[in-house]
What we know:
The protein is an alpha/beta fold. The protein has 11 helices and 6 strands.
Amino acid sequence: MSETDAPASVLLIDDHPLLRQGIKQLVEMEEDMEVIGEASNAHDGITLALDSEPDLILLDLNMPEINGIETLKRLRAENVGSRIVIFTVSDHEDDVVAALRAGADGYLLKDMEPEDLVPQLRQAAVGRMVISDRLTTLLAEALRSQKPEATGASYDSLTPREKDILKLIAEGLSNKMIGRKLDISDGTVKVHVKHLLKKLNLRSRVEVAVWAVEEGLHKG
């Protein structure tokens, strides 16, 4: 639950009405979350997101006309600050990597158990990154093959502050939560993240998180 004790607001963007209804029923059983809107296509979803500024957007990947990745890019281009989690049947490596690089805060598979979905949505709503378990290994392997340059030597080049931030990214914390924890502004966190991405030769905070977990840097 947020500091104000208001329920976390959730927006559903998915072209399957039955699925939206199912998630809505699940969320309605929880006191700390509420579905404040739903859309069956990207255009309506983006309009709703801009109007309501929800805490969390659950976004389908495979939608007609404008797909989830393109929708995600448009939401980020409009500076929508909501947490955006892709919710899909696709466990293809390319889709996962593309979504995370386009600015997704998580990637969950539709075949997960309903009782597992609610805790993941709760984590995402409060600012943590969420990825279905079986995708973590897939992502790590993709990064290992694509980014052999991210070595211990690169880690050693980070400043103490950058190392602190890297560990918090590995825990799945958003820039806002990192800023709160370290008592610095969001903007300062963004600058540090930009520098450490460059030093590690990685392209997104999700790549940093997966790499740090693989290297065991998230511990201690």
